[in-house]
From TrEMBL:
Family per similarity comment: Belongs to the thymidylate kinase family.
Any GO BP: dUDP biosynthetic process
Domain of life: Eukaryota
Any single Gene Ontology cellular-component annotation: nucleus
Range covered out of full length: 13 to 232 of 265
Keywords on record: ATP-binding, Kinase, Nucleotide biosynthesis, Nucleotide-binding, Transferase
Organism from which the protein derives: Coleophoma cylindrospora
UniProt-recorded name of the protein: Thymidylate kinase
Pathway in which the depicted protein is active: Pyrimidine metabolism; dTTP biosynthesis
Entry EC number(s): 2.7.4.9
Chain ranges of the Thymidylate kinase-like domain: 15-199
Nucleotide-binding keyword on record: yes
Amino acid sequence: EPKQPIVRGAFIVMEGLDRAGKTTQVEKLANALYESGRNVETMRFPDRTSPIGMMISNYLQSKSEMDDHVVHLLFSANRWEKVKHINDTLAKGCTIICDRYYYSGMVYSAAKRNPNLSIDWARAPEVGLPRPDMVVFLNLSTEEAAKRGGFGDEKYETSEMQKNVRENFVALKDIPADEGQDLQVIDAGGSVEEVGKAIWSQVVPRVEEVEQGDFSESST
Ligand code: Z5A
């Protein structure tokens, strides 16, 4: 039987807390989708390769200082500069698995608890970005995260910041906009294989739906 043509690729985002295994699972999922005969591309934010991404990377490595709003807007601009590429890739039937997106953008900037940088303020520059077809949120307890080694050296890798980030991700559920509802929570505390299986069983049905045209063309 001839395969139906693919309407478009699916846009799947992986979000999660520090050391939850996003990068590990993005690769694993992309490989498995590729093995199943699909075109797949991985992306990550921040994309440190563009001029804007390099400014973000220097900031995260404490090589430069920036006002909280400025770096927030750079993280957002770093997504906007990829919008055409995202839309073109999906349109040609290629599925995108993306490591972090604007959910991280909102939650990390607001975790600084700067009184002039609320989650609503943080959301504004993200409005209009392509909306993912599914967001997998890898949830890891503080205890499990600690077992996976200490903090790295980058700016946000402190226990205070990570505690606020966790609270903000939980609070996303209460935001009237649809951000919270987008998140499919998966327990990231199991082995790489176990977590991979849980992700696969959630993602594949969604990818199939999108490929067959069952999606709404929406933006944030
Ligand atoms: N940020 C922001 O502020 N605003 C934005 O708009 C965006 C991001 C997009 C850099 O991001 C920082 O930018 C980040 C958020 C902020 N700050 N922090 N923290 P990044 O994506 O470049 O860096 P990252 O997310 O911190 O790092 P990462 O390396 O991508 O982490 P990960 O993907 O969660 O984990 P991993 O590398 O896959 O695994 C971590 C370790 O655990 C590794 O040793 C693995 O072998 C191990 N691992 C993985 N899975 C398992 C399981 N299942 N069991 C045991 N061990 C495991």
